Amino acid sequence: MSSNDKDDASHSGTGDQAGDSSDHAVGKGRAGTRENDIRNTEAVKSTIADQMSRLQQANANLVVATIEARKLAEQVQMAKGELDHLAHHDTLTGLPNRILLNDRLAQAIALAQRSGKQFAVLFMDLDGFKHINDSLGHSVGDQLLQSVGKRLLGCVRQSDTISRQGGDEFVALLTDINHPEDTALAVQKMLAAIALPHHIDQQDLHISASIGISIYPDDGMDTETLIKHADTAMYQAKSKGGTTYAFFEQEMTDRAIERQSTEASLRLALERREFVLHYQPLIDLHSGTIVGIEALVRWRHPQRGLLAPADFVPIAEDSGLILPLGRWVLREACCQAQAWQDMGLPPVTIAVNTSALEFRAKDFLVSLCGILEETRLQPRYLELELTESVLMQDASSTHSVLHALSAMGVHLAVDDFGTGYSSLSYLRRFPIDTLKIDCSFINSMTDNANDASLVSAMISMGKSLKQRVIAEGVETAQQAAFLLDQQCDEGQGFFFAHPMAAKALIPMLQPGFSVKPYLH
Predict the structure, then answer these.
(1) What is the helix (H) or strand (E) element at residue 109, kind and residue range?
(2) 3-state secondary structure of 480
(3) Higher-confidence residue: 213 or 310?
């Protein structure tokens, strides 16, 4: 073999090895590339899957957030609705409050101006609610207000409005009325509904209302005036004894202004010592002697002169001023009765009227004992006069107080007997000493056979119960003779003596003095 052939062979062998190595490298490179591609593809897939998962999670979160946002929006809207309702409705009864009433009144005025129609505003105040609230508790009082609200809603149309103003005051808006008489019928329906028993806390409660009425446009052209005039008319209804209604009249405004002036002056009258007591004797009809004296308060008004109780006592009762005034009267009367005894005059019982507010005061007995101790008057020379309505407001409480007074030796009288509570069972249950027949029966008994029979029956009943019977308002000899013929014990009235100052009564208190004008 030639050297060339060896070289070729040598070169040829080397080339084959190089080619194999190259192919191997290429194959290896391709395999690495595929591996990388696979890895990259898996990485991409993983990334995509991760992104998809994140996207799904984000989408799920977005759905949840949207649902939560919607719920939150609904809650916000509901809260706004609740706040709006609270802002326009009374929290106790759920009835419209002052704000919503004023808004509806403004709408009613605008509508009435366009249509030329009338509407009515009613102002209602419950009679005797404070006593129920104080004696039975605020929980019972609140339930009673809720019951009254429901009763009132049942008496009106859907287009009308019943509103609670606060306390025991309600206002009604009756839209589109044809005649004021229509309003009267609606009011009578309300009064009847309120008067039905309210079953609360396992007991039946009875309540009534006084209602004042103003009519648009006759009694006012704006909301404030209409409500004010209805309120004024309500006081007129209450002055008639309650459980009734009254339409507004312009004269009521003048009386309301006078009333406000009287109340303002009353607050200063005690400080200025403007009150005085006058005394009217009670006469034994058989002997003509004085057997008792009633203390009657008078007000020396600096501008209006001497005022009788009827001119200021009702205002004092409504304003709460009757409590300090009543205690002043009691102390002054006891002091005067003891002063007469200290002068050497025969002891005589002093009678003092006691209002519901005084009698229901928690410290009534303590205050009374303090006054008796302070004035040195023995309890047996004091008689408290209470009306039938005062006695029956809270029978259980009344029973304990009356028996405590009786145990002390204080005498108890029923004033204005025959005009109050229809049941006479209290005469057996309470320690009553005296019945004072109301003057309205005495005034007409000689001309009216029915009243004469009633007076005779009351005298007989009192005597059968071993109670003193006093006829109030005796003004004529004929009346005195009739009473004497019916065996009435005592009389009081102008026929025997007018109320007088303490000093003027001294001669009549002397031993042996007798009043017998009706015997001549």
Answers:
(1) helix 98-115
(2) helix
(3) 213
Domain 98-248 adopts which CATH fold? Alpha-Beta Plaits (3.30.70)
Q: Is the pTM of this model over 0.70?
A: no
- CATH 3.20.20.450 given to domain 258-511: yes
For 150-176, write each residue's pLDDT tens digit.
999 999 999 999 999 989 999 999 998
Assign 247 to helix, strand or coil.
strand
Name residue, tokens 């009762």.
Answer: 317
Residue ranges per domain, the chain?
Answer: 1-88, 98-248, 258-511
Alpha-carbon distance of 393 to 130, in angstroms, equals 11
According to DSSP, the β-strands at 350-353 and 290-301 are: parallel
Q: Phi first, then psi: what are they for 458, rounded to 5°?
A: -65, -40
**Over the stretch 318-363, which tens digit does the pLDDT of each residue have?**
888 899 999 999 999 999 999 999 999 999 999 999 998 899 888 9
Closest CA to 425 of 399, 401, 443: 399
What is each CA distance from 343 to 135, 373, 459, in whole angstroms?
44, 19, 35
Instruction: Give the closest residue to 358 by CA, choosing from 334, 310, 311, 393.
Output: 393
For 15, the 3-state DSSP assignment is: helix
pLDDT of 62 reads 77
Asked if residues 159 and 272 have their Cβ atoms less than 8 Å apart, the reply is no
**Cis peptide bond N-terminal to 302, omega within 30:** no
User: E strands along 362-465, which residues?
Assistant: 382-387, 411-417, 434-437
Alpha helices (H) in 271-321, listed in sequence order: 313-319
Directed axis angle between helix 129-136 and helix 138-153, to 10°? 140
Residues 6+ apart with CB under 8 A from 169: 123, 124, 125
Per-residue pLDDT reduced to its tens digit, 74-93:
776 776 666 666 788 999 99
The DSSP bridge pattern shows strands 118-127 and 208-216 to be antiparallel
Q: Is there a shared CATH topology between the 98-248 domain and the 258-511 domain? A: no
Whole-angstrom Cα distance, residue 255 to residue 311?
12
471-487 burial code (b ≥16 CB/10 A, e <16): bbbbeeeebbebbbebe
- Flag the least confident range among 181-185, 275-279, 324-328, 364-368: 181-185
Reported for 302-306, long-range contacts at CB under 8 A and 24+ positions apart, including other chains, are: 302/274
